[in-house]
Amino acid sequence: MSTNMTIHLRYWRQSGPTAKGYFEDRTLSTVNEHMSFLEMLDVLNEELQLEGKDPVEFDYDCREGICGSCNLVINGQAHGPKKGTACCQLHMRNYSDGDHITIEPPRASAFPVIKDLVVDRSAFDRIIEAGGYVSVKTGSAQEANARPIPKNDADLAFDYAACIGCGACVAACPNASASLFTSAKISHLSHLPQGDVERSNRVVAMVEQMEEEGFGDCSNFGECEAVCPKEISIAAIADMRRDYARAVLQG
Amino acid sequence: MISLDAKIPEGPLEQKWSRHKKDMKLVAPNNRRKYEVIIVGTGLAGGAAAASMAEMGYKVKSFCIQDSARRAHSIAAQGGINAAKNYPNDGDSVWRLFYDTIKGGDYRSREANVYRLAEVSNSIIDQAVAQGVPFAREYSGLLANRSFGGAQVSRTFYARGQTGQQLLLGAYQAMMRQVELGGIEYFTRHEMLEVVIIDGKARGVITRDLVTGEICRHEADAVILATGGYGNVFYLSTNAKNSNVTAAWRAHKKGALFANPSFVQVHPTCIPVSGDYQSKLTLMSESLRNDGRVWVPRTKGDNRHPNDIPEDERFYYLEEKYPSFGNLVPRDVASRNAKVVCDQGLGVGETGLAVYLDFRDAIARDGKDVIAAKYGNLFDMYANIAGEDPYSQPMRIFPAVHYTMGGLWVDYNLMTNIPGLFAAGEANFSDHGANRLGASALMQGLSDGYFVLPSTIGNYLADVKPGTRYGTDHEAFETAAKQAQDSIDRLLNINGKRTIIDFHRTLGRIVWDKIGISRTKEGLEEAIADIRSLRDEFWTNVYVPGEKNNYNKYLEFAGRVADFFELAELMAMDALDREESCGCHLREEFQTEEGEAIRNDEEFNYVSAWEFKDRNGVLEEELHKEVLNFEFVELKQRSYK
Ligand SMILES: Cc1cc2nc3c(=O)[nH]c(=O)nc-3n(C[C@H](O)[C@H](O)[C@H](O)COP(=O)(O)OP(=O)(O)OC[C@H]3O[C@@H](n4cnc5c(N)ncnc54)[C@H](O)[C@@H]3O)c2cc1C
Ligand code: SF4
Ligand code: FES
Prior knowledge:
A: Ubiquitin-like (UB roll), Fumarate Reductase Iron-sulfur Protein, Chain B, domain 2, two-stranded antiparallel sheet, B: five-stranded parallel beta sheet, 17 helices, binds flavin-adenine dinucleotide, binds iron/sulfur cluster
């Protein structure tokens, strides 16, 4: 039989982008060990509503760790304590009866708060917009098998392409840098012959967009890799820097 | 009177699409920028359509609910995408893919549409590879394939267990390129609430900005709905939490016909519900049934640990009932039988709504390493969610709602019966009949978005005078905006005592019990009565928190649940009308003694297309029938014995 736990929650409240935020506390006494972390927040919201109070807003969609919507910072850790796991896939059996849990939005000036735990991550879209693609029009593609790609290259490209765009890397970085996110896309595409053609333009455009959005510099703390739910390798950042330097030198 | 002309081109099956492309009207490149097209939805269908049409020169406005186009529900698709490339040289062809899909759909889809889907499938793979989608490859560097249910050939392309993610990122990146180039105006965190119709044609939409709550008006020359499926009417499903029927339903209430609403696919191998707090269900690949044995205890109330139940007290019900297919019967049969044993009280786990999927014998036979190599990631996923180790004790599984074959009625050009209003992807009803085969939804979404709509939209726009603008202060915009605002105000003013989720969960239980895996006349009639009384309570007793001029997720949900109530009733009506069993639709009255479906081609060989009628304030639905003509394949009864 599953057991119920008591959990003491402290969560961020902020009514809008310019409003002043604060922490609110509440104790939940019916937390089931099989609940996911977000299901626990659902229970919190049901309780709040039954008392006529406003629920806490947080982002989610798939609840399967793939859409990248959820992005809570739990006890100071982006996505919480479980390695390689988005917070929607975190289960309450990872906690104990009587635990205190603090929940915050990712803090970064490039991710302004919309409400409570929901932030605006449109900066990520604009980084992709700057060059995170292969410029191929619908219908102009050649036969798929015309160009073999070594399995290792394809597998490596996949490892980087697995990024879900959640922004945990930014939340974890002391400089709020978006380097892991940006370099993951650059590495995905540059490991494939299709993406190699636009390599130089892409790296320059994306890096500059990243700076323009107000993300910080990378100082090799490595916190991003540690919290990334898809365990994207920090090697991507080194590749990005090398490519950037080379592209700028070439002019 | 509504005309249900499917506009299927003349000629031999293999020439219909190419001839149609030749015959369709075109919009000249320099004229295209004079046309605006609204595309609601950024999943595979909407994302692919937006990118392709913007490349062609149309001015596109794209909308989605999530904070980025990349997060559409398509991102979650795991298994793969079909195409008739025949790379493994195992006898595949466009014809065979077409035939498998028609047969898999139990002969309730249009031959011409399905053939086109199979024909276009190969170009999808070419396109995705060119975009940099990292499909699985062989050591030769060439693309790898695997096999999937319902086919005897290996035609499924995949990118680990994240095929939907990689295909969607390909479409999303193509879209973002067009945003940068100015071809797409991009609206995230926007929900479409109404279609605007002027002089009988779709001319725009009303949306709500989900951050500010503002009701916005957008005018265009055509509107495409690529808003996904409605599986969340069941509350618990494998769909993402924001998946909904609102866009399609509001269009339906403005006159668009809704086709085959009762055709819903239930996937047999999902992680079961663990408690009332459960918010969604997680799918596990059905490949597990290749090595796992499905069973329940023979006696009711046997609470022993599964490992302590001796062999002769285990009921391997699939193996006993279907000796030749055993655990590998098709999705619908596996799902139905799990429900039957649980209804008999033999189900396991805390809720009694689960059956065992046991790898004990496979591990004893092949060794743990072999099983881990095949299913390691699935076992890990299960252990993470269920908190049990499937190597040392059986998994518990249960069927879950997964995909909706029904949707907006469209003709061959993917246009609804409202001129200028198109529907694509899971939101339309077009290609899967009464049952969808694995790996074919991704194919359909991308076929619609990359290849079909970009051609057929031109045929429609060629007859629209370029630059026609009525202005968003036109009466039709005023009325639609007011409708959207009024329904929001109404919800916020109820101030009742029960939460939205509570209503949705209760509705979901009714729909699951009575319009789910198997249906009866009696049950469906009860469902209609239950849905109506719950709906009445909803409109007097729901509590919708917060304000309208702010980010308010529960307000969004309230509007969607309101629409699910109406849809649920139509699903029951549709299931009542169809007095046969076909594909995923099993009417208990129409089955053989062994529980096999009895399809009735004499009387029910049609697409049911429902028209919404408001008769002096009383809402009614009128059935129209599009009879299906099979010229090229012979109708056969499916059999698994
Ligand atoms: C867990 C899972 C696994 C699957 N695996 C496979 C597989 O392996 N192979 C396969 O072929 N199929 C698979 N499917 C099915 C397939 O993923 C879907 O059918 C398909 O992705 C639907 O794509 P779509 O473009 O039609 O809609 P979606 O991807 O659902 O996109 C809908 C879009 O519409 C937007 N939207 C909805 N309503 C509104 C509104 N009112 N206003 C504004 N925007 C709106 C959303 O924001 C979103 O952008 C799977 C499904 C699930 C649930
Ligand atoms: S790199 Fe990792 S942490 Fe950063 S956005 Fe991508 S998935 Fe999230
Ligand atoms: S909700 Fe989709 S990744 Fe967490």
